[in-house]
Amino acid sequence: MTTLAPAAPALDLRTRFYDELDPLLDAHPHVDVVLAVIGSGYMSRAIERHPGRVIDVGIREQALIGVAGGLALAGRRPIVHTFASFLVERPYEQVKLDLGHQDVGAVLVSAGASYDVSAGGRTHQSPADVALISALPGWTVHVPGHADEVAEILHREAAGTGRVYVRLSGQRNTRPHPVDGRLHLLRDGVDAPLVVAVGPMLDTVLEATADLPVRVAWTATPHPLDAEGLRALAGPTPVLAVVEPYLEGTSAAAVAAALVDRPSRVLHVGVPGETELRRYGTPRDHAAAHGLDAVGVRTRLRSLLG
Amino acid sequence: MTTTAPAPASAPTVPQRVRDLVARVTGDEKHDPSAHSTLDVVWTLYDQVLRVDPGHPDDPDRDRFLLSKGHGPASTYAVLAAKGFFPATWLDDVASFDSPLGHHPDRTLVPGIEIGSGSLGHGLPLAVGLALGLRGRTPARVVVLVGDAELDEGSNAEAIQVAGRYGLGNLTCVVVDNHSDNLGWPGGIASRFALEGWAAAEVRTHDQPRLTAALRRTVPDRPTVVVVDTTAKPGTTVKESA
């Protein structure tokens, strides 16, 4: 008798999320999945094996969050999913009131990131999502850069009770790193400026800085920022860059607060917020246009080095 | 199909002591329409319909009452105090800095308050999720009170549709219709729910036997709406359909 080798786990973050839902529902009897159509075609096994626990409300994003809030009030642990534009921006007041004000938790899992849907235009892009979620009390934001990180974050947060936003991107790193909420130093160098890469920006930052005299640290959890870890790595007179795959400056206030007692020079690199790009093309095109490919990041970081 | 719900032989009116508690919130002895438009419904629910225990306000099997129309909490506060969920003295300084009772209720501050509300159009979607989460796990009912003008908010339309498609027999929406909606509801309010598969009843607020019967009635696999007209004159025709 021969046995089939198990299929290799998906490398794409969003695909891994869908694949992980069936075992997640097995392992966590309090979890329900709430959808607004998006994703429902990619989780047939979870839907078949867990009747009634994948709730698709149709293209009704206010109800998506409202229903999740109600489920949480009933003691359930909702995992809520659609594109970031329709998960965070469209029902923002529901996120504020039906989850936060009710003092209940949920795991919101978005797809689309800042410009994964580059060919779709502005309607399907949400670079401000992390800033918006971070503006509300009591949220944790995870921005994983590898599919294995997605699985670990999902299982941990499914067992929790808090308000959690997990941002999935088509951009990813080749290797997983610890998703414990801390800042991790991945490349050291004596007295060198520090570059903090968030989530899927890591490989781009490593490529951009391969021959630059900088240290590189990484986190998958920009909010709440690991202030203690940042202070430990930043030194007494910090020269620092933060490279984030969403709205530029999203972490600026948290970084400033962490370093308030030190004379510091901080560069924030991310998706510019002043203008709409109004171009289609590929995510790679958009990364280049925003200065978020290796060439663009390198140019910005060199300005910090002087 | 039209059915007639059985009416109790006798039904309560709101006791004077409860009306006095409402007056302690509203700060005068006069009749205040905004405070009283929901009083008959809320009192009837807590006195005749809901299975709730002020000694165990977090009982997982309790029925849930969600005041979506959070801008008119006086009657709910008064009824909860009358039923012993919190001391009546709380009613004397509503919305002061140290009071757990505000002009819009906060569930984390008040025993018996199931949702924080005030922004319109949030209670019914929350009720749908609550009913989905409780269905099959507990016999609890979910009863949510909305206003006729509150139904303007599109979030309610989404929730009405979802509740109908999911056949939430443990969900009741009470629409307190004081005809305050600026643009009106051509064809009536109940028909909008009925089209989405809800069992609909229309009653007058002062017709206590029918109000009680309508609020007690549930239908398997279908959510229930009770449209309560607070302005209808005695003798007006009312109907119940399923």
TrEMBL record, chain A:
Record InterPro entries: PDH/Transketolase, THDP-binding, Transketo_C/PFOR_II, Transketolase-like_Pyr-bd
Residues annotated as signal peptide: none
UniProt cross-references to SUPFAM superfamilies, sorted A to Z: Thiamin diphosphate-binding fold (THDP-binding), TK C-terminal domain-like
Pfam families the UniProt entry points to: Transket_pyr
Domain Transketolase-like pyrimidine-binding positions: 11-176
Protein name per its UniProtKB record: Transketolase
Organism encoding this protein: Isoptericola peretonis
Automatic annotation (TrEMBL), chain B:
Annotated Transketolase N-terminal domain residues: 31-236
Cofactor: thiamine diphosphate
Keywords for the protein's UniProt record, in alphabetical order: Thiamine pyrophosphate
Xref: Pfam families: Transketolase_N
SUPFAM superfamilies for this protein: Thiamin diphosphate-binding fold (THDP-binding) (SSF52518)
Transmembrane parts of this sequence: none
Superkingdom to which the source organism belongs: Bacteria
InterPro entries: THDP-binding (IPR029061), Transketolase_N (IPR005474)
Assigned protein family: Belongs to the transketolase family.
Record protein name field: Thiamine pyrophosphate-dependent enzyme
Record organism: Isoptericola peretonis
